Amino acid sequence: MNVRVKLEVLRRETPDFISPDLWTSPTNNPDLNPVDYKIWAVMHQRGVYQRKIHAIDELQQRLIEVWCGLEQSTVDIAADQWCKRLRACVRAKGGHFEHSL
């Protein structure tokens, strides 16, 4: 099955499908990166910095511990918000869109 046919199937069968022409976004935009707009805040809240960090290795270990403790539902919420954020970004033609969420 070629790419064009696959895209047509996705458009027809997937109500929330975002076509490839809308996939391009401003590079490194934190408003479109689930780790930046959701996950990092949760990790911070869960105690990445509960105790003073004395070394890079200690920070790395703490980040891994908190990351591994994240519930799948947290990741799912971040992913669900991504579609809404991407559509808002497209409506704003790549400009600021946080106010319209």
Can you tell me about this structure?
By secondary structure, the protein is mostly helical. The protein has one domain (26-100). Helices cover 55% and strands 0% of the residues. It contains 4 helices and no strands. It has helices at 3-13, 34-45, 56-68, 72-91. α2 packs antiparallel against α4 (72-91). The model has no long low-confidence stretch (mean pLDDT 82).
Please state the oligomeric state of the protein chains shown.
Answer: single chain
Structural class: mainly alpha
Major β-sheet annotation:
none
Q: Judging from the principal axes of the Cα atoms, what is the shape?
A: elongated
Helicity level, as a percent range? 55-70%
Strand content: under 5%
Measured on Cα atoms, how large is the radius of gyration? 18 Å
Low-pLDDT stretches are none
Helix run count: 4
List the helices and strands and how they pair.
Elements: H1 3-13, H2 34-45, H3 56-68, H4 72-91
Helix pairs in contact: 2-4
Keywords:
single chain; 101 residues; mainly alpha; 4 helices; 55% helix; elongated
Summarize the structure.
This protein is 55% helix and 0% strand. It is mostly helical and 101 residues long.
